[in-house]
Amino acid sequence: MAKSKKIVVTGARGFIAKHLRNYLSENNIDLISISRNDFKQFKNESMIVSENYDENILLPKIKDSDALIHLVGIGNQSVNNDYNMINVELTKHIVNLCKKTKIKKIVYTSGLGVSSNTSLGYFISKYNAEKIIINSGLNFTIFRPSYIVGKDDHFTKYLKKQIKTGEIKIPGSGNYSIQPIYIDDVIQIISQSAIQPKFKNRIIDLVGPKNITFKQYVKLFSKGTKTNIKKIDLEDAYRDAITNPKSDFGIDDLNILIGDFRGNHEKLRKLTKMKFHSIVELLESGRLL
Ligand SMILES: NC(=O)c1ccc[n+]([C@@H]2O[C@H](COP(=O)([O-])OP(=O)(O)OC[C@H]3O[C@@H](n4cnc5c(N)ncnc54)[C@H](OP(=O)(O)O)[C@@H]3O)[C@@H](O)[C@H]2O)c1
Asked: Is the pLDDT of residue 70 over 80?
């Protein structure tokens, strides 16, 4: 009988990780999930709680695993948690753990828009994390996702919160586009990539079938609700992001949103041979609300 696969997931309590763990558990994959804090276990899942991803705790538990899916990441900085510490240095630590435990495969979610030409701090940290992984000698798959949407991602939760106030604010013109992809498609792809050889040593845009302007997206999202859509001055949005730690959009949220980043969906479709959910249909059916 074939040996069942053993997969490690970091950042277990995050949005993608929760969906992925549920999916892997349902598909009878042996799962080892790591988080800084306690969390609810799925079946077939072992739990590791370690605030600093302590090597002494992790090494004996994750050794002999087939793959590690690294989902730790931050998109906002603070004095205690900056991009270099979490996106770069922690990735380096995880890569070293893979080498020490002879885990041969690593899957990483970077970001759409990451490139060697980027000047944005967030993207630079993701680029540096990519480089560490590429140069590690491990079999890697790096995904560069656009907005991954479901019912409970940060972006969708933000829009739902705005609907409750009766008004959604659009920074600037709203004519910049996004290329959202559905979480159920994403977890299937990430799961495949941890196991299938065709994903070996590839950097892949994780983007949906269609570009849609933020203005159109918000309109469809709030269809059927009594929500006023209001454009706000971009300068005001940035000032709020800079001066108000509780602002809905962080500086890099705005940079990414208005950056108008586009990815190659066709390449993803050909590689995965999957039929993707249409985000427009999901929005029209109200399934994201
Ligand atoms: N969702 C998207 O649309 C999207 C798009 C592009 C890229 N990505 C990337 O995909 C990855 C996962 O995204 P997500 O949406 O699932 O993010 P998320 O919900 O914010 O989860 C990220 C997880 O990272 C861990 N983490 C955060 N700060 C940490 C710290 N200081 N030390 C150790 N662990 C820390 C946390 O896990 P625990 O609480 O379990 O410790 C957190 O739940 C991230 O790298 C993100 O940049 C996501």
From this structure: yes
